[in-house]
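Figure 3 (text version): structure tokens given as input.
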């Protein structure tokens, strides 16, 4: 639970206390007051009525503020359901993803697997999830052909291990035309990603 959620919970507790105070009967308050100070002047019923209106109004404001606060908090951080759904959709989207790369293996479509996966997960987060806060951490032994990335998000307890395997796809090779309009000297190799995801860290 983040700090904003804790404040919202305190607001709800405070509002409930105010509402409980408003429900106490006037006779009970008079008896309690008299037991403490028997010589105190009697409080009229109108004063208790005004006090009840004030307490109920304050309780209503507290409840309303807390509910709005939970809505704001939900939009500032991820939860497990949002992350689970986003990771699954990102996995489905990337499984079978085709691209080309130069001789060094560098693709013009994305910088690395971590940034590619992070962008996809963030995109599929939905309207209630924030547009940031996703972290994709590569494993130390990752290569261009085989990688494992741990996916986490701010506010969510869940984590996921996404396995990305790169396979050659010769039919997707691309040779851009040369300067004179003929066949170019550089051929970009075609690749296909095979992506799976499981719960937990890699």
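Below: residues designed for each position.
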């Amino acid at each position: 639970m983040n700090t904003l959620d804790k404040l919202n919970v305190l607001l709800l507790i405070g509002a409930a206390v105010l509402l409980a105070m408003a429900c106490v009967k006037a006779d009970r308050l008079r008896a309690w007051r008299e037991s403490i100070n028997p010589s105190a002047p009697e409080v009229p019923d109108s004063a208790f009525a005004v006090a009840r209106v004030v307490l109920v109004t304050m309780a209503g404001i507290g409840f309303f503020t807390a509910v709005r606060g939970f809505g704001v908090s939900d939009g500032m951080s991820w939860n497990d359901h949002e992350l689970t759904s986003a990771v699954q959709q990102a996995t489905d989207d990337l499984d079978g993803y085709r691209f080309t790369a130069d001789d060094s293996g560098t693709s013009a479509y994305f910088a690395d697997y971590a940034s590619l996966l992070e962008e996809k997960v963030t995109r599929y987060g939905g309207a209630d999830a924030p547009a940031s806060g996703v972290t994709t951490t590569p494993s130390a032994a990752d290569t261009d052909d085989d990688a494992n990335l741990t996916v986490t998000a701010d506010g969510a307890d869940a984590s996921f291990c996404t396995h990305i395997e790169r396979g050659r796809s010769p039919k997707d090779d691309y040779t851009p035309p040369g300067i004179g309009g003929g066949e170019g000297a550089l051929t970009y190799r075609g690749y296909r990603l095979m992506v799976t995801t499981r719960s937990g860290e890699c």
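The mean pLDDT is 86.
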